[in-house]
Design brief:
The strands form 3 sheets. This protein has a 6-stranded mixed sheet, with helices on both faces. A 4-stranded parallel sheet has the order 2-1-6-7, sandwiched between helices. A 3-stranded antiparallel sheet has the order 4-3-5, covered by helices on one side. It has 2 domains: 153 residues, Rossmann fold; 126 residues, Hypothetical Protein Tm841, Chain: A,domain 3 (2-Layer Sandwich). The protein is built from 10 helices and 13 strands. With 291 residues, it is of the alpha/beta class. The longest helix is centred in the last third of the chain and has 16 residues. Helix 3 packs across helix 4, helix 5 runs antiparallel to helix 6 and helix 8 packs parallel to helix 9.
Length: 291
């Protein structure tokens, strides 16, 4: 014992290869569809999910892992890594009860030191923070140093979202401050952001291309002359606009590293087909070693 293990949840959108390379264990959220319950990205793969989302008339719902699920997960992780300390990086507590379940599970496992970090984000906004925690852990950092580095990244994290419609977000009950766009969109494309761990309205555009151009313009504004340390473009399958967005990102934002990936079924439930997330953070003293 004496080792530290880093964990996150399936909304972090880490590929199995990336998670394995950084020794990050991932607990899946649940997707409920009709009488069936699926494990996010495990028993319901991404291409199948989005095909079902377009073909089926009924609407999926999502839920966090149970307290019992977390207790089993934490014990398994501790055994696998011979760890007595676990650092958990989870999606925003203002969007999901995942962190609340983890907190309850922690109280039932006094034999383990479990430190829980609220990312206040989703998708690679969670994933980047988990990766920084894992890199710090692999470099031999203490628990306090890991949490400090992760909090530093959180404070500089930006997430911008372009949707084809607010319908899925509204039906899923996660619409937050974007609700003020309802009834005003007509043929407009909504653009959203994360503020303080909640979804908020960013604006609307007359076309898909305009919405993507606006995302990049907003990113430039927030960067204020800096380059992103890492940037991710997250999307749904077979989106013809991704190459256009990537070209704009590479030319105008010039990130040091760029990642692309597919939004998990849980995130797709709320974003719907055509959802795009632009996630990035800038460097700050104290995180460069692990970014």
């Amino acid at each position: 014992m004496g080792r530290i293990a880093v964990v996150t949840d399936s909304t972090a959108n880490l590929t199995p290869e990336l998670a394995q390379a950084h020794d990050i264990s991932v607990i899946p959220l649940n997707v409920h569809w009709g009488e069936e319950t699926y494990l996010d990205g495990i028993t319901l793969d991404i291409p199948t999910f989005y095909r079902m989302l377009q073909e089926r008339k009924d609407f999926p719902m999502t839920s966090q892992p149970s307290v019992g699920d977390f207790m089993t997960f934490f014990r398994q992780v501790a055994e696998r890594y011979e760890a007595d300390t676990i650092v958990g990086v989870f999606l925003s507590s203002l969007l999901s009860g995942t962190l609340a379940s983890a907190i309850q599970a922690k109280a039932e496992l006094p034999e383990l030191r479990i430190e829980l970090h609220d990312s206040r984000s989703v998708s690679m906004g969670v994933g980047f923070q988990a990766l920084v925690a894992a890199r710090a852990n692999q470099a031999g950092a203490s628990v306090e140093e890991i949490l400090h580095a992760t909090a530093k990244v959180r404070s500089r994290m930006e997430l911008l979202i372009a949707l084809n419609t607010l319908e899925y977000l509204h039906r899923g009950g996660r619409i937050g401050g974007a609700a003020r766009l309802l009834g005003t969109l007509l043929n407009f494309k909504p653009m959203l952001t994360m503020e303080g761990g909640k979804i908020d309205a960013l604006g609307k555009a007359r076309s898909r291309r305009k919405s993507l151009e606006s995302l990049v313009a907003e990113a430039l504004k927030r960067l204020a002359g800096r380059r992103p340390v890492e940037l991710a473009v997250m999307h749904t399958p077979e989106d013809p606009d991704i190459s256009l967005l990537l070209d704009m990102v590479k030319e105008q934002l010039q990130p040091q590293q760029i990642t692309t990936g597919l939004l998990s079924p849980v995130l797709g439930t709320h974003g719907g087909p055509g959802a795009i997330g632009l996630v990035f953070y800038t460097e700050s003293n104290g995180i460069g070693t692990y970014a």
